[in-house]
Amino acid sequence: MDSQNIYVLGIESSCDDTAASVIYNGKILSNVIASQKIHEEYGGVVPELASRAHQQNIVPVVHNALKKAGITKEELNAIAFTRGPGLMGSLLVGTSFAKSLAYGLNIPLIDVNHMQGHILAHYIEEEGFEKPPFPFLAMTISGGHTQIVKVNHYFDMEVIGETIDDAVGEAFDKSGKILGLGYPAGPEIDKRAKLGNPKAFQFTKPKVDGLNFSFSGLKTGILYFVQRETKKNPKFVEENLNDICASIQYTIIVILVDKLKKASKDTGIKHIAIGGGVSANSGIRQALKDGEQKFGWTTYVPKFEYTTDNAAMIAIVGYLKYLEGYSTEQNVMASARLKI
Ligand code: KG4
Ligand code: ZN
Fold first, then answer.
1. How many angstroms is it from 272 CA to the middle of ligand 1?
2. Atom 22 (ligand 1): residue with closest C-alpha?
3. If both were cysteines, with which of 116, 147, 214, 299 could 206 make a disulfide (CB 3.0 to 4.6 Å apart)?
4. Residue 201: how many CB atoms within 10 A of its CB?
5. What is the pTM (predicted TM-score) of this model?
6. Per the annotation, where are the binding residues for substrate?
């Protein structure tokens, strides 16, 4: 197959970002995202509002992605879309739109697993960014996911660890809520953590067997700690905010790195790639760098715009599947709990 002139449109609508991207032979030509601000006032994503906003955004977002790429829809070779996992009402918007566009243009329709997208974002052609060699370990950390995946090849992946309750981003956001910070709180905790002492306060780490994670106990521990200390000193949070943030962030990083260490030891794999919104965290990035010295890891962090939810990662998976001659049927259904 001629792999030299392939344009694929990727569409992502699994949560609260409506996104579209055009990829040309593995290189991103456009990466458009309409983020939904409406959820901020609720302190979390409201599914029904997300779905309605996707409906409003999808046409202009796709239009913009094509315009920025400098192509017409007739030049597209395939349409890739997120089939799942995610919020059903949100997924339906992207799925239905992708189906009709592929049908109208009479070109292949390619369904993409959002979690594979986070992982294969590392294969976007991007100057200054190396692609991890197979096999490697991928840790996806965001507001919706916490997973460690053993990646043997593009479409040969095994989930070897995942959260049994909250995602790591939720741990940041819910802790931030307890401290009176805005949503999402991860970036603010990160900023304040740089100014605080990570050993100022100790929080109990969860005991979860194997490579799975748990974050809901940590959140409850932080809540009780703050309630107890505030009873003694009503200004406790205000006076110690940077130290509290640093201590929370430190605890979360130790939890993540301990599991990565175990995963690397169990599998013998030292190539470690991260993705998802939480991989923006400066403490986690530093901990990975330290891992290179301490444990002989080689670590990979994609360009920031490809770590948070985006359609470029859907487009790269679509492109890779297209090269394998893959396409799906028009009767494909969105799947909220789609597995890798
Ligand atoms: O990937 P993403 O944009 O959306 C999904 O959740 O899918 O990730 C958003 C999450 C939020 O929980 C946010 O608080 C967290 O990523 N986050 C951070 C940082 N930047 C974003 N958490 C910690 N430190 C950061 N610098
Ligand atoms: Zn995601």
1. 19
2. 186
3. 214
4. 18
5. 0.94
6. 140-144, 173, 186, 190, 281
Tokens coding 127: 């100057």
What fold is seen in the domain 136-301? Nucleotidyltransferase; domain 5 (3.30.420)
For the stretch 184-201, pLDDT in tens is: 999 999 999 999 999 999
| Single-letter residue type at 224 | Y
Summarised one tens digit per residue, pLDDT across range 221-262 is: 999 999 999 999 999 999 999 999 999 999 999 999 999 999
Neighbours of 130 (CB within 10 A): 11
- Write b or e for each residue in 33-68: b if 16 or more Cβ atoms lie within 10 A of its Cβ, otherwise e: bbebeebeeeeebbeeebbbbbbebbeebbebbbee
Map 117-131 to HEC letters.
HHHHHHHCCCCCCCC
CB atoms within 10 A of CB 73: 15
Where along the chain do its domains lie?
A: 7-125+307-324, 136-301
* Ligand 1 atom showing the smallest separation from residue 176 Cα: 14
CATH of domain 7-125+307-324: 3.30.420.40
